Amino acid sequence: MTENERAHADHASASPQRTRRRRGKPRRRMDSGASTQGGGASKSAAPSSSTSGSRGERGSRGDDKDKQNKHTRRKRRPAHRSTQRGSHGGDSSNSGSGIKRRRHTGNKNRGNQSRRQNNRSSRITTRDETSAGGLVISGLAEAVDENNNVDLSRIYVALIGRLDRRGRLLWSMPKGHVEPGEETAATAEREVWEETGIHGEVITQLGTIDYWFVSEGVRIHKTVHHHLLRYVDGYLNDEDPEVTEVAWIPADELIEHFAYADERKLARIAHDVLPEYAIKEKEAGRVTPR
User: Fold this and answer.
1) CA 268 to CA 274: how far, in whole Å?
2) Where is composition skewed (Basic and acidic residues) in this entry (predicted)?
3) Helix extents (H) in the chain
């Protein structure tokens, strides 16, 4: 074997060993880095640091993505809640607490208002007044036929009309203040004559109503006694400056003419008792004067 062949053979036999050594070197370095301390560990730190660096970068990127995803979720959740609030009128817990707060505030305001009203009412002077009036009836006996049937359309009632602040004509019963020492029946006869021009005589008491109102800074509690009167004589007139109009109204249209509910209630009572008193007037022979 020549020298060239030997060199070629040596080179061929040596190359696999070098290849194995090259492959084995990283293993030795990693093993030595794991087992030894000091210099060997410093040599093996370079590849491990690069590997850990790449892993760290990947981990940091993954953490950044997770943070971004979490941040995105956190951003989306408030948006989703705000959408629910907009569509459903607010979160159930928040809306409920809000309503309770509003209600609680409203109750406070109502309490304050009631206290103010009580304070004002305590400062306002209160006075009691008593009035009397009634319905004067004409044609009671004439409304009864041979079979004792009563035609209410033939019975007439005297009413007075006053204009309110809006200019509306409101019909009511004639009435006025009871003078000191005067009976309510006498007051009813006097007030009917003053406001309608008709003299009447009390037959029976119709009913009593009461109400509150304020006049010139005084809170007044008024009680009104109403009576049923038969016509004696006289003619309708509106000489009273407080009265706008006076008229005879058929008894069957009486209820619908009154503007106030308490007087409509009295009109229903009169509507029920008029047939009985009409028959009594006929039996007693009391014909309405003409």
Assistant:
1) 10
2) 1-11, 55-69
3) 3-35, 39-88, 92-123, 184-196, 254-257, 261-283
Report d(CA 34, CA 44) in Å as an integer.
Answer: 9
pTM: 0.57
DSSP 218-275: EEEEEEEEEEEEEEEEE-----STT-SEEEEEEGGGHHHHBSSHHHHHHHHHHHHHHH
Task: Report pLDDT digits (tens) over 55-66.
Answer: 544 555 555 555
DSSP-assigned letter for residue 178: P
- Residue 289 three-state SS: coil
Residue 41 burial (C-beta neighbours within 10 Å; 0-12, 13-18, 19+): middle
Separation of alpha carbons 270 and 206, rounded Å: 7
The token pair at 273 is: 């008792």
Residue 204: its H or E element: strand 198-215
- Provide Rg for the chain, Cα atoms: 54
What is the rounded CA–CA span in Å between residue 140 and residue 44?
132
Of 176, 148, 172, 147, nearest to 159 (Cα)? 172
Tell me the C-alpha distance between 263 and 159, whole Å.
12
Phi/psi of residue 18, nearest 5 degrees:
-65, -40
- What are the pLDDT digits (tens) for 121-155? 557 899 999 999 999 999 999 999 999 999 999 99
